[in-house]
Design a protein that fits this description.
It contains two helices and 22 strands. The chain is mainly beta and about 300 residues long. The chain binds copper (II) ion (CU).
Length: about 300
């Protein structure tokens, strides 16, 4: 059963997207006073005992209430860039703006008659409750289990990176929300990666910035001083960088030699041009290697 949820913020008159200031929540994470559009769908949706698949994309900490015995109710099968290699079970999902997760929930793990709510632990009031499911005693046909093996993902080895670049996402006293202290000027590349090369890009933040890179997906190789976090698996195009955080990603651009951009995906920061351009360049070797990418 496909479900799509999105976040919108309305004025009290019901029109337009308000431009209210962001306010800090949860130790500095910046989220706005959002209304979750699907909150009005609940309650009353009846689900047979089977697996439903959800693709979630909200700034939120998603969690089912109640939890099934043993936890791990949110089984992640995919991320921004497609299927993971193996499913990952989560008790809760932290989702930044523009991040996507393909999640399966096996409602056979709940007793018939249970009302299961999908909650946003970072919401308030009615925005806490996203939707709910009434588990019926009807049995679904077929095997709804998530396969143990979902795909195979080529690892971009950061040890083979030809270049390491650092992008600091920060508020500047003179230029507002900036990357490396520079205001956005379209057409001025801040990097010139060569097509086919593996590069490591480091994203450093002052406050919470979800970083989105255009053209090719990347793989998270480290977070702060450790390895990737629980929500970093698979091919990604957006990574959630927490306040005063650092995330390293391995990226390989394989497609067009052109100008592209990376930017913060907080809508308010994006609207204030927290963006930088990069220009991919073609080499003779990159022409030979270009055919190897599954992303072309
Ligand atoms: Cu930002």
């Amino acid at each position: 059963m496909p479900r799509t949820s999105s976040r919108r913020r309305f004025t009290s008159g019901g029109g337009g997207v308000a431009k209210a200031a962001l306010r800090p929540i949860d130790g500095g994470a910046q989220i706005a006073r959002y209304v979750v559009a699907l909150a009005d769908l609940a309650p009353g949706l009846t689900i047979v005992q089977r697996t439903v698949n959800g693709r979630l994309g909200l700034v939120a900490q998603r969690e089912l209430d109640p939890q099934p015995s043993g936890g791990g109710a949110l089984v992640q099968a995919g991320g921004d860039g497609g299927l993971l290699e193996r499913p990952l079970a989560h008790d809760a999902l932290d989702i930044a703006p523009a991040e996507r997760f393909d999640v399966d929930v096996d409602f056979a793990r709940f007793r018939p008659g249970t009302r299961v709510r999908l909650l946003n632990r970072l919401g308030e009031g009615r925005t806490t409750e996203v939707m709910c499911f009434d588990v019926s005693s009807a049995r679904s046909d077929g095997d709804a289990r998530v396969p143990e093996r979902l795909s195979s993902i080529e690892r971009l080895d950061p040890g083979r990176a030809t270049t390491t670049r650092t992008f600091r996402f920060q508020l500047s006293a003179h230029h507002g929300w900036t990357i490396n202290g520079e205001p956005y000027r379209p057409g001025r590349p801040s990097a010139r990666p060569r097509l086919g090369d593996i590069e490591v890009w480091r994203f450093i933040t002052d406050v919470h910035h979800p970083v989105h890179v255009h053209l090719d997906p990347f793989q998270v190789v480290g977070r702060n001083n450790g390895g990737p976090g629980p929500y970093d698996a698979g091919w990604k195009d957006t990574v959630d960088v927490r306040p005063a955080g650092g995330v390293g990603v391995a990226v390989r651009f394989t497609d067009h030699a052109e100008a592209f951009m990376l930017h913060c995906h907080n809508l308010e920061h994006e609207d204030m041009a927290m963006t930088a351009d990069f220009t991919t360049t073609r080499t003779r070797a990159s022409r030979r290697r270009a055919g190897a990418s599954p992303w072309r």
